[in-house]
Prior knowledge:
By secondary structure, the chain is an alpha+beta fold. Helices cover 37% and strands 18% of the residues.
Amino acid sequence: MSIDIRVPALPESVADATVLSWHKQPGDAVSRDENLVDLETDKVVLEVPAPSDGVLMEVQFEEGDTVEADQILAIIDENATGAVAAPAAEKPAEAPSAESEPVPAPAAETETEESSEQPVLTPSVRRLVKELNIDASKITGTGKNGRILKSDVMKFLDKQDKNEHEQELEALRSSAKPATELPQGARPEERVPMTRLRARIAERLLEAQQNAAILTTFNEVDLQAVMELRNRYKETFEKQHDTRLGFMSFFIKAAVEALKKFPEVNASVDGTEIIYHGYYDIGIAVGSPRGL
């Protein structure tokens, strides 16, 4: 009996989804509740599980295709379950047979010992780990009995991506520090493609900025150390530069250091890409007798 695998009901206000990744290919055996495919929407990533055991016969959409609710994603053949079960039944055949004398026995024990040291993976996670070439022993499982779930793999990848991204940003920041190593007036930038989720977040933030009132918040800061530093050098500074040492330079320094620590605040959006700027533009509004 053939079963249609359909796109599940999408979240409210979401019209379509993108096929993110297939975890099974036509001809592969599938188990009930095993994740077949991930669908990415503007809000979440949905997992589509298999409704029963069988064999994946057809895939109607490729990765990157756009799908709508209730469209047929794939077809599973339940009647092919028996053909899939045969290879699984071959495993016990390694146990005592006419050929397996004392030599295979220790080998089987060794395999058992080695497998017991390996992390426990669900079928979909095992395939994902293999496709991404990840060392599963480095992933901490949060499932029952330490089983590694797909969410654990995603967290591991997010952490890995974050570390790599921080290294890239650190390299960008360090390259921007020594002015002698860069051509005069150089303004380095780094472009990073946005995911569909982040693109929608940027779109929503822009809509909020255009349709809502922009508010300013005030926070109290202890400036005792700044006051002491200013008092110590204000006379020397005024004699040397013929102008008073105010507080604005301290505020600008603090703002630049904050942008270095949180580069996302210094980034901008261009289409579907995020641009991380390796420079810092600070604008200051100055009041004068003629106005601002």
